[in-house]
Design goal:
By secondary structure, the chain is mainly alpha-helical. The protein has helices at residues 2-15, 19-38, 65-75, 91-99, 113-120, 134-167, 173-192, 217-231, 233-246, 248-253, 259-288, 297-321, 325-343, 354-360, 364-378, 386-410, and strands spanning 54-60, 80-85, 105-109, 126-129. Helix 3 links the parallel strand 1 (54-60) and strand 2 (80-85).
Length: 412
Amino acid sequence: MKFLDITLKDLYQLVRDWQPPIFLFAAPILFTLMFGLMFGGFSGPGGNSEDNRIPVWIIDEDGTPVTESVISFLVTSEVIKIEAKSADMELADLKQAVIDEDVTAVIVFPAGFSDSIQEEGTVNFDVILDENTPGGITVKQAVQTSANRIETAAKVADESTELYSEKVGFTNESEKRTFYESSFQKALAAWDSPPVTSQTFQTNTENETGTSSENAFAQSLPGMMAQFAIAGLIGASEIIVQERKSGALDRLRGTAVPRLAILSGHWLAMFTMIFLQFIVLITFGQIFLRLNFFSSPGATLILSLASCAFVASLGLLIGILAKMPEQTAIFGLIPMFLFAGLGGAWVPIEMLGETVQKVSKFTPVSWIMSGYKEILIQGAGLNDILLNILILIGFSLLFFIPAAVIFYRNQT
């Protein structure tokens, strides 16, 4: 069991200094709290009952039944909170309100808005927001979704009006417009009560909902777990580089220790270090952040093992590729920022652009994030996240195999 001796030796080198434990445990918790509070902190089951929707001002310069229907539709949004304002406000004042963060966004329905919907079937309104803020990004997506639904309702109303005109007919334009407005209002209202709805619950042994829906820490904690797991590899990878530079690796090869045992020992040390980090952070989230990881303990455990296997394999490859100890920091930080940024560790992947969402599927952090969020938010079981686990195992092999090949070649 020579590989266990190497594992214990690596772990001892890691914990004999006070800095790695601080970086592995305290830093992820601090950043989890920071990012979580940025996105709303505690809410959802067991949280507060306040309205956490994003405030948005509405300026109605059109003042028609069509805009009234649209505003009534937007009021039901689960994302934005509509606040009506006077149409007399100047554009400069509205922009300044957004800059001063008095409001996240302003929606302006210009004069002629209802005519453009009825005649052209297009939704033309102005939105003032800051696309560089999380709130602005969220509002933009919510408004775009609403605009698509409004256009759909407009098409339904237009087709209904044309059909009625052909079958029955209208006595005048006023009657036709009234019919259109009524059809438009009914079509919009249909979005609030779809004929088929789907809800997913995972109940625990005490018959309580086993999810952490709407808890902002369900986003931030898995993100920081993934990010700092990769960042924590820097110290572990340095051990491999130092062994090679000091000649300890050559002396080890002169003994009866197989090369596979050397590789396995270093890999297992990294795996153990990251897995311990995951245990501490998951326990912290369960106890202090009301994140129900234990709604599906088997799924949480297997996903954690697969995640740690990927991180350990990446760390092994970094340690073998790096020629100098300083390079391990570069080789570790580049994938950390790349995987974390594209994988949705900092902000929900839904808030990023469509192209980024597609690219994120090729990053392991994206599968770590989606797996944990399905457990926490939807109460997913092992079968539900099986694809995530298999893909993470695939990433583990993707990094471990080249590490092994390079290691064997360098030692021939």
